[in-house]
Design goal:
The complex is a heterodimer of chains A (312) and B (220). Chain A has 10 helices and 13 strands. With 312 residues, chain A is α/β, with parallel strands linked by helices. The longest helix of chain A has 16 residues. Chain B is built from 9 helices and no strands. The chains are: A alpha/beta (312), B mainly alpha (220). Chains A and B meet through helix 2 and helix 3 of A and helix 1 and helix 4 of B.
Chain lengths: 312, 220
């Protein structure tokens, strides 16, 4: 175990930022902290980084002090830099401060600047950088020394698509190397695509934590399949298909639309769609369009938010 | 130069900011040289140089640190494995060096116009360095209080005013001036050609100021 938080509570005046959060992160694991604005994600990262002491509870890391800092890379939610220095000089200062020797530091920085498409601009002052370029520079500075604990606050904000893909690659490589990665995000898709485990936070409380598929499976949400038929069939016969729990039909925009509700199963919504299309064809109908709406992490997120708001 | 330390970073940043650098050197010279070259009592240029030392030291160090904190740079630096003591010491040393350099021109002209005895010259240098160190240490200490650069300016102004008044630069302050190295600088400059007796006191003061700066850096 790399990070172990137990009943961590933090108050800022009368506002409770964290409420008895218990969470652990293993080596090689990517954990996504998901939650709305002000849910305590950034505070939790800063507590783990020892920048903010918790009021109650404990944070256990394998090493502490200077050694812990040497092995930690953190991306903050701001892009503070020394504006008159170049991007390379800023990154160089951080790389050298993390104890990298000059040759390794230069090679590693060159590689990272190239990965993030900043190599052509590394000799320019940071004051001439756009917001996205500054975010990339922050990422380079956080990752250059190959940290074994990576804390990222909203890493994909301001990044172009290519940089997001490269970042995901870098993080997966770091995780394979054994790094523990905790990233906070508002982007549900990013969390679902990258994280091995999701921790849902709201109002400082940890609502749920687990693998994305397990969290989705815990939902009682149905798979909804909407079919557009050119040749109609008796829709009641579709209810006989295993897994189908309800069928309804309506005519709009000059077409016949059939909506099929089904419980999610292990074979997945695509397999269910294939069974339904096959059944429609077998009954003499013809499908000209289909749309699947399967429950995903956004539904898990919204369901927990609604549950929390309904709670006293 | 690639910055390997906070000291090198500070120097490089100052060298890159050409306009700021020219202002840093030109402004004290423009304000102090007419006073030094004018036919006025020695106490006036001595007061001017001492106030400039207090002002540049306190303002430069405190506002710089407050801005670093406000931008989030201090938070980023807190994640570095470098000790805060070392970071603050590097920051202070760079600022002391730059303050010393920017005020060295008016001071040199002053010493040319009012040539001191050899021991007097040593006393001036020691008391000057001592005052620059103390002003920067004061600036770093003051930077711990404000939460924004706006507040930082107010605290810096209050500190500068207090240092000037308590050092007896406006009117004699017999109960406090002895504790501040700025008064010793003023005294050294005004008695520059006939004060060898003060040199041991100033040397001790210089060491005391350096020690004080180290303590402040450690606490920061």
């Amino acid at each position: 175990m790399v990070v172990a938080l137990r009943d961590v509570t933090k108050w800022f005046g009368s506002i409770q930022a964290l409420d008895r959060v218990t969470l652990s992160v293993e080596e090689g694991e990517i954990v996504g902290l998901l939650g709305p604005n002000g849910s305590g994600k950034s505070t939790l990262l800063k507590v783990i980084a020892r920048l903010i002491p918790p009021d109650e509870g404990s944070v256990v890391l394998p090493v502490n002090g200077r050694l812990m800092m040497l092995r930690t890379g953190m991306l903050f939610d701001h892009t503070a830099h020394w504006e008159t220095l170049t991007g390379y000089e800023n990154a160089w200062f951080f790389a050298r401060s993390y104890g990298m020797d000059p040759v390794t530091a230069h090679d590693r920085l060159e590689d990272l600047f190239e990965r993030f498409d900043l190599l052509e601009r590394w000799g320019d002052p940071v004051s001439s950088y756009s917001y996205g370029m500054r975010r990339k520079l922050c990422l380079i500075e956080a990752l250059a020394h190959d940290p074994s604990l990576i804390l990222l606050d909203e890493p994909s904000i301001g990044l172009d698509y290519r940089a997001r893909v490269n970042l995901a690659d870098l993080l997966r490589t770091a995780a394979r190397r054994g790094a523990a990665i905790i990233l906070s995000t508002n982007d549900v898709d990013e969390a679902a695509g990258l994280a091995h485990r999701i921790a849902l936070l709201n109002r400082g409380r940890l609502l749920a934590s687990g693998e994305p598929s397990a969290l989705i499976g815990s939902l009682a949400a149905k798979v909804t399949i909407e079919l557009r038929l050119r040749i109609p069939v008796d829709i009641r016969s579709l209810e006989e298909i295993p897994g189908v729990e309800g069928v309804s039909a309506d005519e709009r925009e000059g077409g016949l639309y059939v909506t099929v509700m089904a419980a999610p199963d292990e074979s997945g919504p695509s397999s269910l769609l294939a069974r339904i299309v096959h059944a429609v064809a077998a009954r003499g109908g013809e499908v000209v369009g289909a749309d699947i709406r399967a429950p995903g992490l956004p539904d898990v997120f919204l369901a927990h938010m609604e549950e929390e708001e309904g709670a006293p | 130069m690639r910055p390997d330390s906070i000291f090198q970073k500070e120097i490089l940043e100052d060298l890159r900011n050409r306009r700021g650098l020219v202002l840093k050197f030109a402004l004290p010279a423009a304000l102090l040289l007419p006073l030094i070259l004018a036919d006025v009592p020695l106490s006036l240029p001595a007061t001017g140089i001492t106030i400039a030392v207090v002002f540049s030291g306190v303002f430069g160090s405190s506002i710089g640190l407050v801005r670093l904190r406000e931008s989030g740079m201090l938070e980023r630096m807190a994640m570095l494995p470098t000790s805060p003591r070392r970071l603050i010491a590097g920051y202070a040393f760079a600022n002391i060096l730059l303050d010393g350099a920017q005020l060295a021109i008016p001071l040199a002209v002053f010493l040319v116009i009012h040539p001191p005895a050899p021991v007097g010259a040593v006393c001036v240098i020691v008391s000057f360095v001592s005052a620059v160190v103390a002003a920067n240490a004061l600036g770093i200490l003051v930077a711990a209080i404000p939460e924004s650069s706006g507040e930082g300016h107010i605290y810096a102004i209050i500190t500068v005013m207090a240092a000037i008044v308590l050092s007896g630069l406006v009117a004699p302050a017999p109960y406090t001036q002895w504790f501040l190295p700025f008064w010793y600088l003023y005294e050294t400059l005004t008695t520059v050609s006939s004060m060898p007796a003060l040199s041991p006191i100033l040397a001790a003061l210089f060491l005391g100021s350096a020690l004080g700066c180290a303590v402040v850096a450690r606490k920061s």
